[in-house]
Automatic annotation (TrEMBL):
InterPro entries, per database record: AAA+_ATPase, ABC_transporter-like_ATP-bd, ABC_transporter-like_CS, P-loop_NTPase
Domain ABC transporter: 10-253
Name used for this protein in its record: ATP-binding cassette domain-containing protein
Oxidoreductase keyword on record: no
UniProt KW keywords: ATP-binding, Nucleotide-binding, Transport
Amino acid sequence: MTSSVTVPKIRIRNLSKSFGNNQVLRNINMDVPEGTSFVIIGGSGSGKSVLLRCILGLMVPDSGSIEIDGKNIFDLSHSQRDEKLEQMGMLFQNAALFDSLPIWENVAFALLYGHRKKHKTITRLEAHEKAFRVLELVGLDPERVGDLYPDELSGGMQKRVGLARAIVSKPEIIFFDEPTTGLDPIMGAVIDGLIKACVDKLGSTAIAITHDMASAQRIGDQAAMLYQGELIWQGQADKLLEADNPYVHQFTHGLRHGPIKVETKIEIKGQGG
Ligand SMILES: Nc1ncnc2c1ncn2[C@@H]1O[C@H](COP(=O)(O)OP(=O)(O)OP(=O)(O)O)[C@@H](O)[C@H]1O
């Protein structure tokens, strides 16, 4: 009889990271199954970005392992790690577009300038056509915006361009860093819908970090909460608001009172919550 064991796309074990006396990640364990969207929530300074940087291989942890497709990324050679990085797409918090490049070239950046061999032979014309197709996919009119520069677009449009750039190489893993920050609630919902649609269409595995509960529930299949560097809760994203963990409850409901203490310089009187 054969037993089939499914290897998670991303598997993190006993991951810890400190900066001097500041222990930022404490013994993190987490599995992200292939094709699922995993959302990490947590307050400011809880370690979300550091965790993301470690998974991207941009920061080396003090201990623990991060396996992608069953291989510890810290055991790979530089070129193997670069290859893994090129299977990943990333939508940064502020879209992080190159101001000096037109929109289409921002979208096609990985195709034109990435290291992956299969893209080396792409012509500018092919890259241009591909960028136009992906811009359409994220709901932008390529004829109208393709030759503009980032500062000529609104924040919501820039996020769409950032999403187009993140998916242009059909990455196996996509990271979203605060995808709805700075957007109005309706545009936030639109971007979340696009993210979900793109991830589903590509069959990618996604990791998103966010403070935005509505966004976490729209994007995520699974969710986890980081608090002071520890993953204190993991479960289904649609159960976040009902979680009976008091830290998760306080955070997801935005309550001032609870186990999470936030220092303020002024005393706020009255109003419960
Ligand atoms: N390169 C670094 N050197 C020293 N300390 C760092 C470095 N990067 C992060 N930290 C520290 O790690 C802690 C967690 O930071 P991190 O950026 O991961 O928080 P976060 O949860 O992403 O917060 P936010 O939601 O505000 O972006 C903070 O105390 C921060 O000062």
